[in-house]
Amino acid sequence: MDQAGPTEFGVGNGVEALSLESGQAPAESQKQQEYVITSAHAVDKDSWQQVGLMLVTGFNCAYVFSFSNLMLVPLGWAWGLTCLAVIGAFACYANWLLSGLHVIDGHRFIRYRDLMGFVFGRRMYYLTWFLQFMTLLLGNMGFILLGGRALKEINSEFSNSPLRLQVFILATGVVYFIFAYLVPTMSAMRNWLATSAVLTVTYVVVLVAILVKDGKANKTKDYNIHGSEVEKVFNAFGAIAAILVCNTSGLLPEIQSTLRKPVVANMRKALMMQYTVGLAVYYGISIAGYWAYGSSVSEYLPYQLSGPRWGNVLINSTAFLQSVVSQHMFCAPIHEALDTKFQKLDEGMFSKANLGRRFALRALVFGLNTFVTALFPFMGDFVNLFGSFTLFPLTFVFPSMVFIKVRQLLLPPPLFLLSLSQEILEVELVLVNRDPIGSARDLLQLAAQMATLGGLQPLFSFGVISDVQYADIPDGHSFSGVPRYYRHSMQVLQGAISKWNDHKKLQFSMNFGDIVDGFCPKDKSLITVQKVVKEFDRFNGPTYHMIGNHCLYNLPRSKLISLLKLPSIHGHAYYDFSPCPGYRFIVLDAYEISTIGWPQGHPNTLAAMQILEAKNPNSDKNSPNGMVGLEKRFLKFNGAVGKEQLLWLDDALKDSTKNEQKVVICCHLPLHPKAASAKALLWDYEDVLNLIHSYKCVKACFAGHDHKGGYTVDSHGIHHRVFEAALECPPESNAYGYIDVYRDRLSLIVIYTYRNCYMIYVPTNPRGAERLPPCIVVPESDFYLRRLWGNPDEDLIVQQKYLVTFTVGYEQKNNIDAAVKKFSENFTILLFHYDGRTTEWDEFEWSKRAIHVSARKQTKWWYAKRFLHPDIVARYEYIFIWDEDLGLEHFDAEEYIKLVKKHGLEISQPGLEPNNGLTWQMTKRRGDHEVHKFVEIMATVFSRDAWRCVWHMIQNDLVHGWGLDFALRKCVEPAHEKIGVVDAQWIVHQVVPSLGNQGQAEKGKAPWEGVRERCRKEWAIFQSRLSDAERAYYLSMGIAPRNSTVT
User: Fold this and answer.
1) How many Å apart are CA 451 and CA 465, to the nearest integer?
2) Helix crossing, 122-156 with 309-342: angle to 10°?
3) How many CA atoms lie within 13 A of 263 on its CB side?
4) Quick count: other Cβ atoms within 10 Å of Cβ 1011?
5) Is the predicted pLDDT of residue 1016 greater than 60, yes or no?
């Protein structure tokens, strides 16, 4: 029975490297790093409770006073409650989804536009920027209008001749400006959240009390939906827009950026608070208002309250004050973008220079926003409608696009993804200069367009099949004994044609050669070839053929070129075609230089004979006897493309590069030794590979010939896929497929079962494990000691959370014994022995539970590079990499960890006693501080995230680590906040010359002098390498290199 399944394989330089939460960063994605820059605002500081409270109070601002009128009056009870529930649920799920995309491939995206730009390219970055900032500016206008109404209502309680609304709008703008100036960031709102919560509870309690009173007194409630049919439809759309606006913000990544790690789990906790407590409150007020006043409920609920003056004043006062806090959350991304662009990032937010700049920036934002709102105070409905159009893609479309883009690459096998390169989306900004009603239609078109451009719809698709080798003869075997089903191969082809036609979207098909078998009787060769070609002609589209050796066994190439309708170039069997502007297919003739297919005295035949005579010592040139390795490819049934075809290929690749086309190369013979057996390779495959490697446009090479199939990705990221032979499919099985071609990947859907198993290739598995099913892959380990008996899941009574390593010699046993006792059972102890003495340590009871690694005369960085791979120590939250000559009398490990977490330090060390031992001035303990900044490499403590970066920076041949401390800041951001010395927990450097004395005396120098000289050399080498690497990176990005940051 046929069974289809997607099989995908990925290009290492493309977006397939994306993965949720973890993984390695894709090389190509470095092109997007310009989006992920330092922020002027605080990142990674707030608790989920703080953010959850901000969401609840922010969304529960006085804006809810309009919801009864906006959301329920146009819809009525049934549709209103249904839309509230459905849109609320969808908004919750969409934000839940988006929160999971905050970290992709180790990159943390603190801005929505950065995320979209990273995944889809620069134009998507700017589209997101436009939609988000329009949403936020419109939302801020709504808040200004709301605050103005609240002030106007307060004024009306005390004045018989109230001022115009515009006056209160201007006053609101001034208050918002002052608040934004004094409270510059979202994180800085923490001190106002308690006040905000009190305000929210106050106006909710008073409001609900008055609503209940008014609702009971109102005996003439009218819940009918009024207006013409057209008005009802448009009002209903407006209501849905209002529900959408009240449920989401379009700035979730920016809010999430303030959270401490784990950012995804913490954000989802905050979202649950918003969509339970928060939703209950603002839905509750909306429903209560509609219940109390029916269809006559005001667009600003306090207008209708019948309560005492103090009640109305209190409600409107708290509403105004709460709107001040709420608008700040919605306006924060705009402030962050301007502050990051124009403020001095090396100075504090309240430095003299930044205070002046912030004054101008905040004045600009609120001046323009307030002016427009005062000019058009009637535009509340427009704000809701247009805001919903900008929020819809931000909330529902974009997260789904990113999620699908990422999750496509994490599907269970059989999965086979060819990802080519990260592309820039061709998305039209359809919302510019359009009226909001027309934008609704355009938004639907935009969603459909983005579905294609975002990777949901292929650009085109085509069918693939190889080595049909049909012959009307009994079944047989290959020379190696593999069964061959000559007649059944026609049924496989017929099944392929039927499937391709059923697909209805295949633009063409490709046959990778050998449509008839060499054992076909020669008097039936022509009619057999015609029969197979006739079957291919049943396909609803063109078929592009390649000539294989079995084809040439039956008919001369001149006849085959005509029968197969090859788009021949001067009688050659190589050609190219372009199914769409962005792609080019190049079909090579693997038998241009060959002993078969050409007349006996043809120059190409003679050239092939010379090659075989030189390379194959056997009289039977189809025999590989006595040949070794890749020499076995020089067999008579193979061939070469030759110099003339290589020149043609070079011209084709130049033209493709000029026209920015991706190239797929097709050839009957495989082009890479890791994708096929040596006996199946093209003779001059090395020349072809060298040529295509000199260009960046070639993305994949497809071939046949080697019937078992194969796959590899070469050193330049080019995918080589050899297709299985239809000939070797037993009855009731198949071997064919089709390929969906996207802007950034090829997805091969294979339909074959003849090996009674599916090939597994999962590119998101760790390198080397791609052929394993993901659920069996265990990429991380630990140093936990396990029993040799019992149940594995009962081995660990305690799972240590921290790892401590000392590089030791036995002479320091007493000092290490005292040091180890400072660490609780929460710490795994690992000793690196540079003197080779390990068993003597068993005199200490703790040593029997410690890990011992021995290698003579090596440093701690040599050990760390070889034994502390980030995947090995991934279970540990913090890794201590310490010297042996440290006094820990004043050190408490558990308290140290608490301080590190409190201050958010990713790289740290204890303070060093200033009056004992030898140390740098900058690392000496300061008695009036808990922490201060800078660390050296003597007693460093790394978080696991920081260590993953630092481990990769440690050079394999530089063993002393000198200069590393000055480069540690490259592994955390912002470094000035996440690197520090913990002064409240200090140690003593005892300056014991242990390993330093184990050098070798040379040229009259003492052993320690040789070691010290090596240290200095390594420092210089490391500085040079890092500086050169930075410079090379910037040049590769087309950026003029900045001055090296290595000091």
Assistant:
1) 29
2) 150
3) 26
4) 19
5) yes
* Residue pair 245/391 in contact by the 8 Å Cβ criterion: yes
Tokens for 934? 């800078």
Mean pLDDT of the 214-218 span: 80
Give dist(CA 317, CA 313) in Å, integer. Answer: 6
Model confidence pLDDT, tens digit, residues 781-799: 899 998 898 888 888 888 8
Residue burial 65-77, b: 16+ Cβ < 10 Å; e: rest: bbbbbbbbbbbbe
Cβ neighbors of 95 (< 8 A, separation 6 or more) are: 248, 252, 271, 395, 399
Both structure tokens of 376 = 């058009």
Q: How far is CA 906 from the centre of its chain?
A: 22
Q: Are 801 and 826 in contact (CB under 8 A)?
A: yes
Nearest partner of 263 among 499, 567, 43, judged by Cα: 43
Would you call 4 helix, strand, or coil by DSSP? coil
- Give the type of residue at 711: Y
Q: What pLDDT shows up at residue 18?
A: 28
Residues 33-42 have a mean pLDDT of 52
Distance CA 325, CA 322 (A): 5
Q: Quick check: pTM over 0.70? A: no
Residue 645 · residue 575 · CB < 8 Å: no
Which of these, 85, 46, 61, 97, lies nearest to 271 by C-alpha position?
Answer: 97
Question: Strand pairing partners for 750?
Answer: 5, 737
Q: What is the pLDDT of residue 779?
A: 87
Give tens-digit pLDDT for 697-713. 999 999 999 998 888 88
851 token code pair: 């890990």
Q: What band does 389 get if pLDDT is binned at 50, 70 and 90?
A: low
Strand partners, 982: 910, 931
Cα–Cα distance for residue pair 357/353, rounded to 1 Å: 6
Indicate the burial class of 1036 (C-beta count within 10 angstroms; 0-12, 13-18, 19 or more): exposed
3-state class of 711 per DSSP? strand
CB atoms near residue 474 (< 10 Å): 9
- The rounded distance, in Å, linking the Cα atoms of 293 and 662 is 64
Higher pLDDT, 387 or 885: 885
Instruction: State residue 666 phi and psi, 5-degree precision.
Output: -120, 135
List residues bridging with 580 in a β-sheet.
Answer: 583
pLDDT at 915: 58
Give 410-427 as a DSSP string. Answer: GPPSS--EEE--------
Helix, strand, or coil (residue 932)? strand
d(CA 745, CA 766): 20
pLDDT score, position 1047:
39
Secondary structure string (H, E, C) spanning 48-77: HHHHHHHHHHHHCCHHHHHHHHHHHCCCHH
Q: How far is CA 165 from CA 312, 319, 321, 379, in A?
A: 18, 16, 17, 13
What is the reported pLDDT for 387? 52
Of the ranges 136-145, 415-424, 661-670, which is most confident?
Answer: 661-670
- Residue 327, helix vs strand vs coil: helix
Averaged pLDDT for residues 922-929: 51
Tokens linked to 590? 């693997």
- Helical H runs in 715-788? none
Query: In a 3-state reduction of DSSP, which class is residue 365?
Result: helix
Q: pLDDT grade, residue 3 (50/70/90)?
A: very low
Residue 986 has φ and ψ, to the nearest 5°, of -125, 160
What's the pLDDT at 388?
56
For the ranges 117-126, 230-239, 677-686, the maximum mean pLDDT occurs at 677-686
Q: What is the pLDDT of residue 321?
A: 79
